[in-house]
């Protein structure tokens, strides 16, 4: 990642300082090369010799005597590091290749002269850096990435016969825009959206509800109809399998991808938020309160009517997040008031936890008295009382009371489709409880095995990566026995308690790595279904081989990263001994996070 285009800033800094800034802050450049499965980045040294001649002949940059003494000028080199091919930066490489192919371009035709930028010592507008980092107008957005950013092709500012791939946050296919390029990578550049000259047919800016949208990095799709968002997410699932399961695509082994399942709530659904603030290293004590909120997505200017909202720092000062639940936003308001009074006590940056806590209560319960015993966010403007909201679950006829917890070690409760789940507030749990009943029902229905010869037969379930027992407990009806496995002993402890609290007696939870799970499974594989719900990185090859050896009757793979899911499904079907015995029954996305680019994938495999 390279410095923003500011000749005033660059002229004020010696080159050694610029280099230090580059090494400290280049998150994206550190992640801009890929492992062997990803299209490789080309080495960028094509201007080194020309640059050496230019620098040595410029007396303002290097004394001539250094050449006479025979000292060899040491050029700074771009050092790319590997990234996971299924991470956003890994996926971007596939998206770049697809865009180049559609425009009849090659990687060589869009390669950027990184060496010249790194070693640029010219301090005026004629510098290479200034030429690369510039304003470009009349740019047509051609596609959108899985990360929700627009992609386009622009002219290379230095080499007439070359182009550049540019990333445009908040750009939509069909938009004609004005942008400012501010970072350069080997095969693409990053930009800020300055102006939408002509709107895409799918852009509906009147739908935007948040004053921070267009600056905040949290949401990408508020200017799309919800139906359009669901289409975008279906495309993300399709592209994931195109990039990471090419053999399955070529052999037409992937079923028609189902429509993305909508979230019952499109706003006010998120049950966890983590606002944060930074303290600059040179600041020993605050003179004014730092912004508390979420990261800014570059320095966009396209929403002129809200350009001042949240400030201009790298972290925006966010007063309200409209995708958060009501009690979460009340907690945010409370903690911001507290921060107003206590920010001078902080010596370094911090992240605040805001986690919804739901209790099922009796209709005759004195809510105020129960709340007094809780540890939760308090309102300093209301006698420092704990804030809470009362609701009623109409379907199950249960009164609920919600508070906002800020202590990561505190035990909280989530209420899902009539079940309650306890876990530590800082631990992982799905953050959109409005869609969880829909997802758990879908999983439950797809796990059921048919009767044998018209007669009822035992059914079993193995839940890998079971966490605190969400899918195990919600899927326990209709099966004789559930075995859940989780590497975290604390999570297993919560899973056991959750089964007891919900009166579920056919669940057994064990501590262990999923990779060694099947060594101790004692239920017959022909009557067993398996749930996979791994972390973003997906499953490793050892686990998938053991899964194939166990040879269960059905597999339901749930993933928050459809790219690692696609990679794993292809490996399982094509590279394991028993993979050929399975077929993909269904594949579709679930919209856990409306207004954002995220999509959850659910794939069902059946042994045939």
From TrEMBL:
Its EC number is 2.1.1.35. The keyword Transferase applies. S-adenosyl-L-methionine binds at residues 430, 465, 486, 533. It catalyses: uridine(54) in tRNA + S-adenosyl-L-methionine = 5-methyluridine(54) in tRNA + S-adenosyl-L-homocysteine + H(+). InterPro entries: MeTrfase_TrmA_AS (IPR030390), MeTrfase_TrmA_CS (IPR030391), NA-bd_OB-fold (IPR012340), SAM-dependent_MTases_sf (IPR029063), TRAM_dom (IPR002792), tRNA_(uracil-5-)_MeTrfase (IPR025795), U5_MeTrfase_fam (IPR010280). It comes from the Eukaryota. One of its GO terms (molecular function) is single-stranded DNA endodeoxyribonuclease activity. GO terms for biological process: methylation; tRNA modification. The active site is at residue 560. The keyword S-adenosyl-L-methionine applies. Residues 129-195 form the TRAM domain. It holds the Pfam family TRAM. It is an enzyme of class 2 (transferase). Keywords: Methyltransferase, S-adenosyl-L-methionine, Transferase, tRNA processing. Catalyzes the formation of 5-methyl-uridine at position 54 (m5U54) in all tRNA. May also have a role in tRNA stabilization or maturation. Belongs to the class I-like SAM-binding methyltransferase superfamily. RNA M5U methyltransferase family. This is tRNA (uracil(54)-C(5))-methyltransferase. It comes from Tetrapisispora phaffii (strain ATCC 24235 / CBS 4417 / NBRC 1672 / NRRL Y-8282 / UCD 70-5).
């Amino acid at each position: 990642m390279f410095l923003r285009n500011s000749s005033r800033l660059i002229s004020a800094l010696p080159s050694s300082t610029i280099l230090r800034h580059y090494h400290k802050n280049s998150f994206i450049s550190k992640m801009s090369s890929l492992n062997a499965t990803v299209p490789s980045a080309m080495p960028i040294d094509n201007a080194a010799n020309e640059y050496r001649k230019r620098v040595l002949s410029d007396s303002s940059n290097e004394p001539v005597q250094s050449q006479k003494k025979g000292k060899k000028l040491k050029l700074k080199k771009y050092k790319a590091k590997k990234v996971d091919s299924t991470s956003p930066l890994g996926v971007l490489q596939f998206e770049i290749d697809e865009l180049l192919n559609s425009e009849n371009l090659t990687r060589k035709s869009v390669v950027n002269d990184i060496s010249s930028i790194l070693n640029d010592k010219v301090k005026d507008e004629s510098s290479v850096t200034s030429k690369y980092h510039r304003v470009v107008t009349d740019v047509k957005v051609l596609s959108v990435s899985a990360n929700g950013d627009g992609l386009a092709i622009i002219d290379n500012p230095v080499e007439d016969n070359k182009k550049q791939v540019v990333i445009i946050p908040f750009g939509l296919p069909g938009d004609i825009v004005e942008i400012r390029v501010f970072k350069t990578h080997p095969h693409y550049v990053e930009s800020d959206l300055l102006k939408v000259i002509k709107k895409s047919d799918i852009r509906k800016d009147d739908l935007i509800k948040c004053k921070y949208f267009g600056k905040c990095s949290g949401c990408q799709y508020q200017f799309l109809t919800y139906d359009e968002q669901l289409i975008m997410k279906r495309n993300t699932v399709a592209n994931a399998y195109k990039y990471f399961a090419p053999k399955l695509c070529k052999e037409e082994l992937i079923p028609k991808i189902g429509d993305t399942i909508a979230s019952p709530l499109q706003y006010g659904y998120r049950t966890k938020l983590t606002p944060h603030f930074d303290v600059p290293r040179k600041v020993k004590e605050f003179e004014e309160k730092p912004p508390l909120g979420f990261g800014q997505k570059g320095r966009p200017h396209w929403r002129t009517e809200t350009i001042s909202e949240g400030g201009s720092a790298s972290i925006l000062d966010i007063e309200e997040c409209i995708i958060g639940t009501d009690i979460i936003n009340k907690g945010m308001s409370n903690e911001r008031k507290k921060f107003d009074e206590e920010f001078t006590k902080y010596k370094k940056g911090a992240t605040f936890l805001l986690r919804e806590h739901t209790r099922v209560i009796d209709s005759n319960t004195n809510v105020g008295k129960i709340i007094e015993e809780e540890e939760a966010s308090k309102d300093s403007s209301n006698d420092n009382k704990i804030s809470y909201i009362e609701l009623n679950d109409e379907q199950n006829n249960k009164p609920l009371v919600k508070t906002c917890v800020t202590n990561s070690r505190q035990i909280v409760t989530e209420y899902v489709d009539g079940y309650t789940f306890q876990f530590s507030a800082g631990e992982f749990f799905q953050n959109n409880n409005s869609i969880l009943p829909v997802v758990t029902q879908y999983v439950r229905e797809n796990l059921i095995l048919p009767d044998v010869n018209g007669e009822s037969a035992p059914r079993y379930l193995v839940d890998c990566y079971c966490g605190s027992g969400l899918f195990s407990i919600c899927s326990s009806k209709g099966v004789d026995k559930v075995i859940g496995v989780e590497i975290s002993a604390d999570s297993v402890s919560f899973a056991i308690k959750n089964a007891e609290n919900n009166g579920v007696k056919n669940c057994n939870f064990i501590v262990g790595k999923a990779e060694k799970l099947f060594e101790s499974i004692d239920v017959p594989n022909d009557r067993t279904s398996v749930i996979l719900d791994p972390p973003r990185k997906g499953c490793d090859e050892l686990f998938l081989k053991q899964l194939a050896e166990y040879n269960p009757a059905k597999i339901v793979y749930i993933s928050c990263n459809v790219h690692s899911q696609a990679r794993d499904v292809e490996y399982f079907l094509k590279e394991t001994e028993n993979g050929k015995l399975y077929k993909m029954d269904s594949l579709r996305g679930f919209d856990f996070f409306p207004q954002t680019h995220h999509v959850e994938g659910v794939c069902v495999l059946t042994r045939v």
